[in-house]
Design brief:
DNA polymerase, domain 1, 2 domains, 10-stranded mixed β-sheet, elongated
Length: about 350
């Protein structure tokens, strides 16, 4: 596989864009179908491997283009089988991607930005700040160049970055993955997560059939704002009002991610409010154990209390209350914590642009 170059990557291009490439290099228009097959179905990493294109066409193509596949720069293996990869981007930066095996399921947690603008208090990616958006090629590279590619059954956009803040690239990537000329995956195998950005969320709901996950973490607006600054510009109440306008009884699923902080958002008061807010929406709540991050207790905002890890018994009681009152709820198993691959731990601040 290649390293980042000045050449334009073919990975991420639509058939129409590939048709334009064919015209540039003097190939017949039907060569765009051949290009799509080599890139998206066969997953080749080298233009020379496209043997049904003439040698002269391939040579002209190599002067301007590259397939765009780039191997991971590093990898870490967890005791639980989770693998974290450090991928290069075409702009010369770095992102982390996580592969999570679970029996016959293989899930990849994909990043969409280098760092993140959202500044969520509990998240290492938020601490990193924002270095830039990933291109469609950068997003797809995390899948096509993944060593476990053939084992994948699910994709979650829950890595570094806020998908609704780079929505053009995220939507393009999911369309290519679900297209007949691509992987032809069902959109029901892809979940996109967000803290909720007004324009992005509305557009995603209207344009994408993929599953949606909302990072909720606290049902009270003032408390949520103390850990998720985006709450101030687009409150959860307004997000729920929008979500209620869509049908969640079909194949597209809605879930709410709820990181549990001990003594802060795991009280009966919070459980009752979640039931009140979500009781009339077809959804699932996923409880996630918070993983302590560097100096997190030293940066409370205003009167917000310091964050602390949840008690497993309280988490189970919280889950049981929600379930008993009609809100489906599960506790998500923590994976890859020993290699900083678990929820909220991805960070490449020290690894961007060596």
């Amino acid at each position: 596989m290649e390293q980042a170059t000045h050449l334009t990557p073919l990975l991420g291009m639509t058939p129409d864009e590939l048709k334009a490439v064919a015209a540039v290099v003097g190939a017949p228009s039907f060569a765009s179908r051949q290009l799509a097959q080599w890139i998206y179905q066969k997953g080749v990493g080298d233009i020379d491997a496209m043997t049904n294109l003439s040698l002269s066409v391939r040579n002209r193509m190599k002067e301007r283009y590259t397939v765009g596949l780039m191997a991971p720069l590093a990898e870490q293996h967890s005791v639980d089988g989770t693998v974290k990869y450090l991928f290069p981007t075409h702009s010369g930066e770095r992102v982390e991607t996580v592969f999570i095996p679970d029996g016959d399921r293989g899930t990849v947690c994909v990043s969409c930005q280098v760092g993140c603008k959202m500044g969520c208090r509990f998240c290492m990616t938020g601490r990193q700040g924002f270095q830039g958006n990933l291109s469609v090629a950068d997003i797809l590279n995390q899948l096509y160049a993944l060593p476990e590619r053939e084992r994948l059954t699910n994709i979650v956009f829950m890595g570094q970055g806020e998908p609704m803040d780079n929505l053009d690239a995220v939507l393009s990537a999911t369309r290519l993955l679900t297209a007949d000329f691509g992987w032809a995956w069902s959109p029901r195998r892809i979940t996109v997560s967000t803290v909720g950005l007004r324009k992005g969320l509305q557009r995603f709901l209207d344009e994408s059939p993929c599953h949606l996950a909302i990072s909720l973490h606290n049902p009270f607006s003032d408390e949520r704002a103390s850990i998720i600054p985006a709450e101030r510009s687009y409150p959860l109440s307004e997000q729920l009002e929008l979500l209620r306008q869509y049908d969640w009884t079909g194949q597209r699923r809605l879930s709410f991610e709820y990181i549990v902080f001990g003594g802060i958002n795991d009280t009966p008061r919070h459980a009752r409010e979640l039931v009140r807010l979500l009781g009339n929406i077809e959804c699932r709540v996923n409880l996630i154990r918070w993983h302590k991050i560097e100096a997190s207790s030293d940066v409370p905002q205003g009167d917000a209390p310091s964050l602390s890890e949840a008690d497993p018994v309280r988490m189970e009681a919280f889950r049981d209350y929600l379930t008993h009152h009609g809100v489906r709820c599960t506790i998500r198993a923590s994976r890859g914590q020993d290699i900083d691959a678990a929820c909220g731990l991805l960070n490449t601040k020290s690894k961007v642009k060596d």
